[in-house]
Write a structure and sequence with these properties.
The complex is a heterodimer of chains A (369) and B (296). By secondary structure, chain A is of the alpha+beta class. Chain A is built from nine helices and 20 strands. With 296 residues, chain B is mostly helical. The radius of gyration of chain B is 26 Å and the shape is flat. Classes of the chains: A alpha+beta (369), B mainly alpha (296).
Chain lengths: 369, 296
């Protein structure tokens, strides 16, 4: 994480407190508090209706919250007009001005700031080169592909060196390959610029790929704020576990602080926090080892479940093995292509055992209704 | 070589025949409309243009045209017609643009409701609406009663049977023709564009001027042309609300036929009006630089 004082001239921290916004009975934002560090890449992740876009629009000033506080650095901006907030913005629809050329689009924020003409030309060219569109300045917007349009939008958002840039699902209109390429490009632009970026997405993989930290939102509240690693390894609730990464949830019983699946105690490196809530065992397909029914028992401290292979799903880079545990429970196990090539693929209907160590054993409470 | 599609051939001939059949079908489908336009638009206009070139005795003459350009009466009518149409168009823009802007920013359901209010008078007969204005605007009509009782004026104003009445009635009837295309074009403007400009630091007024206004111009132009052209040939409303004191081209044509029964002169007026209108639309088109605006 960049040091706050050293990057203050290139970026600003954002502090949100008690931010609340209702539409009738619907609470879009319910007492949100969040700290974004200077220079941080913070992603707001959540399903539609979770409040992530409302929060971003409140930061931009296009949504007026009912109460709460938003600080950019030391300055309270919650009641400041959007055009005085000095933000860079990138929209899902790109929002490029169709009657202006590429260069005119990128020059617009500089023109608004009264930058002298020769300097505008220089900075526009530099910004376009940064997004690899140096030769495209004279093009019209309708002559560009979707990926090129989003690059122009990025250049326009950063050309005036804003200290905070907001991005609202900027890649969701692009196809998968281009999206993954742009994720890496945005990430490296962020490193070069050093600005604070708040990024909205509903795509958990995108959030994990790009962010310094991710705030997961659920029904107007923050379910968890953490680094991508921590979010994946230590989800704090069923909602987060389910939303981030692939997983299967099996109900467990908690007795004396120990979680049991069908009466068998599970080894877990994390303590159960609130035994009053129903709990679930979260199993990620890529963290389970698939053992032959006759294989010797696992070392102590490893959990095991047994079942039969119901289905094999070929996915190119891996094979997903669906294992029936009986009583209507089913778990998916991912086998890497390498293991499949070595002939480790079980037969349909074969008896197998699933092994997972204490570190991979996630016991999470159900989110309260 | 067979034109029938066969297995493993390149089938170019069969594919060509299929495309030809398709274009024949489209021609067949549009034939009734083409025929109708020929019969009810081009033939009468050609016939009228022909009439204007002959005198009552049936001899070829250009006198009908030379009279239009020499007589101050006709010249004056032309000038007045264009002036009134321009005034009506201007007032429609002044009233219609803010209305459309307001409606375009409403939630779609409420905007649809507003659109119904705009359109309901549109579905009522022009004659009915014109007489309604006559009742409202006459010397002891509702409008004058209010103005006097509220103490805004001491004496009833002369609102009907003059230019004022004609213009009020025409603006009311023409407004939907401006609102419909303008609203449609404003609704199509992505609201994120204005937000993007504001987010970058443009004041709302600046964002409107730089982004919204230029993008609404094609719709505004369509509405302006529609209102202006329709006003040029408007007959009923200026005739009734003008009370004979306002003479626009359509009334001059009508009186030339009904009073003087001079078909040649009336046709010449019609032809000149048509050509002047076409010339003006072309000039407007050039002036607005629409090619640039429409190319997205």
């Amino acid at each position: 994480m960049p040091d706050a004082s050293a990057t203050q001239d290139r970026s600003l921290p954002i502090t949100v407190r008690h931010l609340t916004k209702s539409y009738g009975d619907f609470k879009a934002l319910d007492d949100i508090g969040i700290d974004v560090r200077a220079g941080e890449f913070m992603t707001l992740l959540g399903p539609s209706g979770s409040g992530k876009t409302t929060l971003l629009m409140a930061l931009a000033g296009f949504v007026s919250p009912d109460r709460g506080s938003i600080l950019f650095g030391e300055q309270e901006v919650v009641a400041l007009s959007p055009h005085k907030r000095g933000l860079g913005m990138v929209f899902q629809s790109y929002a490029l001005f169709p009657l202006m050329s590429v260069a005119e689009n990128v020059a617009y924020p500089l023109k608004l700031r009264g930058v002298p003409r020769p300097e505008i030309g220089r900075r526009v060219q530099a910004a376009l080169e940064m997004v690899q569109l140096g030769a495209f300045g004279e093009r019209r917007i309708h002559q560009l592909s979707g990926g090129q349009r989003q690059r122009v939008a990025l250049a326009r958002a950063m050309v005036f060196e804003p200290r905070i840039i907001l991005m609202d699902e900027p890649l969701s209109a692009l196809d998968k390959k281009l999206r993954e390429q742009m994720q890496i490009e945005i990430k490296s632009l962020h490193r070069k610029l050093g600005a604070t970026i708040v990024y909205v997405t509903h795509d958990q993989r995108e959030a994990l790929t790009m962010s310094d930290r991710v705030a997961v939102l659920d029904r107007g509240r923050i379910a968890q704020i953490d680094t991508p690693q921590a979010l994946y390894r230590r989800p704090r609730s069923l909602f987060v576990a389910d939303f981030v990464g692939e997983s299967v949830a099996l109900p467990v019983q908690v007795e004396a602080g120990v979680a049991r699946h069908r009466g068998v105690p599970l080894h877990s490196s994390r303590a159960v926090e609130d035994p009053a809530l129903p709990h679930y065992l979260i199993l990620r397909p890529e963290l389970i080892e698939l053992l032959d029914g006759q294989a010797p028992p696992s070392p102590p401290g490893t959990n095991e479940l047994s079942g039969t292979v119901r289905e094999l799903v070929f996915q190119g880079d891996s094979v997903l093995v669906l294992v029936d545990l009986g009583q209507g429970e089913e778990v998916a196990v991912r086998l890497a292509a390498g293991r499949v090539a070595r002939g480790g693929l079980p037969q349909q209907g074969a008896a197998v055992r699933l092994a997972f160590d204490a570190e991979s054993t996630l016991i999470v409470p159900a989110t309260d209704p | 070589m067979s034109t029938r599609a066969g297995p493993q051939g390149d089938n170019a001939a069969a594919l060509l025949r299929q495309r030809q059949q398709e274009s024949q079908l489209f021609l067949g489908l549009s034939a009734p409309a083409l025929l109708a336009i020929m019969v009810i638009v081009f033939l009468p206009i050609s016939w009228l243009s022909g009439l204007s070139l002959f005198d009552r005795g049936g001899a070829f003459t250009l006198e009908n045209y030379s009279r239009i350009f020499q007589s101050p009466l006709y010249r004056n009518t032309f000038v007045v017609t264009f002036q009134i149409s321009a005034l009506v168009t201007l007032l429609c823009v002044v009233l219609g643009y803010p209305l459309c802007y307001w409606m375009a920013r409403m939630p779609p359901r409420r905007a649809a409701l507003c659109m119904i209010f705009v359109l309901v008078p549109f579905w009522t007969s022009v004659l009915v609406r014109t007489y309604a204005w006559l009742v409202l605007l006459q010397r002891n009509g509702l409008v004058n009663q209010w103005l006097v009782s509220l103490g805004i004026v001491d004496e009833p104003l002369q609102l009907a049977h003059n230019l004022t009445g004609s213009v009020i009635g025409m603006v009311h009837i023409m407004l939907p023709f401006l609102v419909l295309p303008l609203y449609a074009s404003m609704r199509a403007i992505d609201t994120d564009l204005v937000r993007a400009a504001i987010g970058m630091g443009a004041s709302p007024a600046r964002a409107f001027r730089d982004v919204f206004l230029p993008m609404s111009l094609p719709g505004l132009f369509a509405g302006v042309v529609l209102v202006f052209v329709l006003s040029l040939g408007f007959f009923v409303t200026p005739a009734l609300l003008g009370g004979g004191r306002v003479q626009m081209m359509a009334q001059r044509i009508e009186s030339t036929i009904t009073i003087y029964s001079n078909w040649g002169a009336a046709s010449a007026l019609g032809v000149v009006l048509l050509l002047a209108t076409m010339l003006l639309v072309w000039l407007l088109h050039r002036g607005f630089g629409l090619d640039r605006l429409f190319s997205r």
